[in-house]
Amino acid sequence: MISILPKTGRRILYFTLLAAFVLLLAPPVRRFFFSGGLRWLYILLFAFTLAYELTPLMIRLARRFSILDLPDDRKSIVKGPLFWGGSPS
Prior knowledge:
This protein has 3 helices and no strands. Helix 1 (about 5-25) crosses helix 3 (about 40-65). It is elongated and about 55 Å long. The protein has one domain (about 5-89). It is mostly helical. The chain has helices at about 5-25, 25-35, 40-65. It starts with 6 loop residues before the first helix and ends in a 25-residue tail after the last helix. The protein is about 60% helix and about 0% strand.
């Protein structure tokens, strides 16, 4: 996996976004966004944090259950990308 952040930086970012996701689930926070006319911002933040949190899990599950798009003679790729999302690392 190619990343510009060191491993500890990725963990800090992951847990920070996890806390933001849990905070977005709270009814007072949702009410704040909806009553202020910021419904689309709420949906954007919710979708981004959910996708960021679930991508590493889906990568692990795809590798564990061998749900990979493996290359054959007709394909030009060398390493198989995952079916469930993520990078082909």
